[in-house]
Design a protein that fits this description.
There is one protein chain. By secondary structure, the protein is of the alpha+beta class. The chain has two domains: about 100 residues, Translation Initiation Factor IF3; about 100 residues, Protein of unknown function (DUF541), domain 2 (Alpha-Beta Plaits, 2-Layer Sandwich). Helix 1 runs antiparallel to helix 2. The protein is elongated.
Length: about 230
């Protein structure tokens, strides 16, 4: 597991500043620690959609429902658990032609449904996308690469952030020939970690497995610490 530490901004204050309402009334050192952990994804979540246009609303609905039912059955036959699949309700909308003159003309109905699948074995992602294509799914909305146990990596990033803050404080105190005192305040601000996302692909566009298996997810953490300066 590769660890990367990012050095961020820091502030040093030895004398309180009365101009600020929240200024501390004693000598102190304030630091911000950052931590990053880079990990390879081991799971994914993808959303696909089937869109059909028909002259008749019932035909459009039946066509879309048939594709979704076929895809769901194929997924479960391949071992995907039911709780790892979410399918949306049908969205049906009339389609009109707008001539330069005259009233809009109804030309049919557009129906669509979305299916979201959680993939616990990343090496099978392309197989499930192939199933979608074979079932009649015609749009990939998104593919998100994730890690199963993000908590352990978040904890590692947090420890890295704590060590980063401690190291900065110790270095500053030594540099200014001061003695570092007790921790006075800790503020924890966990960043929002974003998964690796691949969006909007046509189902006839084949995605190479290396495009996601070689990806890296960066998990970040941050902590703000204020130390007293010992007398």
């Amino acid at each position: 597991m590769k660890r990367t530490f990012v050095i961020g901004a820091l502030a040093v204050s030895f004398i309180s500043v009365s101009a600020f309402a929240n200024a501390l009334e004693f000598p102190h050192i304030a630091t911000t620690g950052y931590g990053e952990i880079q990990v390879k994804p081991d799971m994914a979540e993808f959303s696909v959609r089937v869109v059909q246009s028909q002259m008749d609303a019932d035909q459009a609905k039946q066509s879309v429902d048939s594709v979704v039912d076929s895809f769901l059955n194929s997924l479960m036959s391949q071992g995907i658990e039911k709780h790892d699949i979410q399918s949306s309700n049908l969205h049906l909308s009339p389609q009109y032609h707008y001539p330069e003159k005259g009233k809009p003309e109804l030309v049919g109905y557009r129906a669509s449904r979305t299916v979201t699948v959680q993939v616990m074995e990343l090496d099978k992602l392309n197989d499930y996308l192939d199933l979608a294509l074979q079932s009649g799914i015609n749009q990939v909305d998104s593919i998100e690469l994730k890690v199963k146990d993000q908590g352990q990596y978040q904890q590692a990033a947090r420890i890295a952030a704590i060590k980063d803050a401690q190291g900065k404080a110790a270095s500053l105190a030594k540099g200014f020939e001061q003695k570092l005192g007790q921790v006075w305040r800790i503020e924890y601000r966990q960043p929002m970690n974003q998964p690796v996302v691949m969006r909007s692909m046509a189902m006839d566009s084949k995605m190479e497995s290396s495009s996601y298996q070689d990806s890296v997810i960066t998990i970040r953490d941050r902590v703000d610490v204020t130390y007293q300066i010992a007398k």
